[in-house]
Amino acid sequence: MLNQACRMHLYIHIPFCHRICPYCSFYKHTPGKTDMKRFIDALLKEASLRLPGCPPVTTIYFGGGTPSMLSSTHLSRLVEGLGVYADISSVEEFSFEANPATFTAKKAELWRQLGITRISLGIQSWDASFLSMLGRTHTPEQARESILLLRQVGMPQVNIDLMFSLPGQTVASWKETLETTLEQNPDHISTYNLTYEEDTDFYRRHAAGLMESDEDRDAAMFELAHGMLTGAGYRHYETSNYAQGGALSLHNLAYWQGEDYIGIGPGAYSTVGRTRSFNTGNTTDYISALLEHSRIPEQRERLDDAAYRTERIGLLLRTDTGLPDSWLRMEDSPLVAELIREHMAARQDNGNIVLTGRGRLLVDAIAVELID
């Protein structure tokens, strides 16, 4: 059971996709012959085993996969069922990932009725050739239409996901992508540097020399996004994330700040205190364990002090609120002093260390030096 004094965040993993993108390493698959009613039954069974006795839910996040593939009937039943096992009456943010090609106005209206407040659109690019290369099933026109549709139904916040350093992409074409995105005036923009993750088609092609990395291009595109988006009034509050006004992703902030969260669904993770659990990444086994054996198919591990410190440093350094001195050792002082001297970091009034300039580009390398 969670500490009753803590905030609680809920993540629901929907692993289904119409088509598997070649760059994505999250647990996902096409629906195939999956019985969707039994899948929803299994999610609710896990909720009945995990959620009773927990504090009221602060944020909900449906990720995937493609949550917007769920039918209105299945989604309604799932959301209503979650409310049976947890207090979701005072949720501050309800986020939902969507593919522009998988919803209509009627579906979007239902999302608002169910209490969804934030849609994260996996647009990735406004260029049809890049969308094809990435395996995306929507067109640039559908992406624009989806944003208009969400505005028409009164969705409070719309986020646009973008990717850069794509094979064949130039700094000039990335600039056009950013300009087109700003024309849509989204509340939040996420910009992800393409990385070659294991167990993906892109990773295999990269390993075979068919796709190349270019750190100089990565840096140029990162700095271009930072300059253009902050210049347009967006707050660069995390390495890959920009927000207008108060449109920061509260759910993701909870991860970065080390708050407890519960994950439900195949492949989902939970962290409560120093205990981390992760569900099987097999939808068939997941459904069977829960519906036939009333058992959550999970593994657990305890984060020791070293592992917990590693995670805190790696995540907090990515944010514009920075890393408190309490996570640093005496032997870290020379490195911190050097970072400040080289204008790669600054110390805030509260003493936190915040990466600046080129330091933002080297966040992972700097974290490793502080951890070793």
TrEMBL record:
<keyword id="KW-0479">Metal-binding</keyword>
<dbReference type="GO" id="GO:0006779">
    <property type="term" value="P:porphyrin-containing compound biosynthetic process"/>
</dbReference>
<dbReference type="InterPro" id="IPR034505">
    <property type="entry name" value="Coproporphyrinogen-III_oxidase"/>
</dbReference>
<dbReference type="InterPro" id="IPR058240">
    <property type="entry name" value="rSAM_sf"/>
</dbReference>
<dbReference type="GO" id="GO:0005737">
    <property type="term" value="C:cytoplasm"/>
</dbReference>
<dbReference type="InterPro" id="IPR007197">
    <property type="entry name" value="rSAM"/>
</dbReference>
<protein>
    <recommendedName>
        <fullName>Heme chaperone HemW</fullName>
    </recommendedName>
</protein>
<comment type="function">
    <text>Probably acts as a heme chaperone, transferring heme to an unknown acceptor. Binds one molecule of heme per monomer, possibly covalently. Binds 1 [4Fe-4S] cluster. The cluster is coordinated with 3 cysteines and an exchangeable S-adenosyl-L-methionine.</text>
</comment>
<keyword id="KW-0963">Cytoplasm</keyword>
<dbReference type="GO" id="GO:0004109">
    <property type="term" value="F:coproporphyrinogen oxidase activity"/>
</dbReference>
<dbReference type="InterPro" id="IPR006638">
    <property type="entry name" value="Elp3/MiaA/NifB-like_rSAM"/>
</dbReference>
<keyword id="KW-0004">4Fe-4S</keyword>
<dbReference type="InterPro" id="IPR013785">
    <property type="entry name" value="Aldolase_TIM"/>
</dbReference>
<comment type="similarity">
    <text>Belongs to the anaerobic coproporphyrinogen-III oxidase family. HemW subfamily.</text>
</comment>
<keyword id="KW-0408">Iron</keyword>
<dbReference type="GO" id="GO:0046872">
    <property type="term" value="F:metal ion binding"/>
</dbReference>
<keyword id="KW-0949">S-adenosyl-L-methionine</keyword>
<dbReference type="Pfam" id="PF04055">
    <property type="entry name" value="Radical_SAM"/>
</dbReference>
<keyword id="KW-0349">Heme</keyword>
<dbReference type="GO" id="GO:0051539">
    <property type="term" value="F:4 iron, 4 sulfur cluster binding"/>
</dbReference>
<keyword id="KW-0143">Chaperone</keyword>
<dbReference type="InterPro" id="IPR004559">
    <property type="entry name" value="HemW-like"/>
</dbReference>
<keyword id="KW-0411">Iron-sulfur</keyword>
<feature type="domain" description="Radical SAM core">
    <location>
        <begin position="2"/>
        <end position="232"/>
    </location>
</feature>
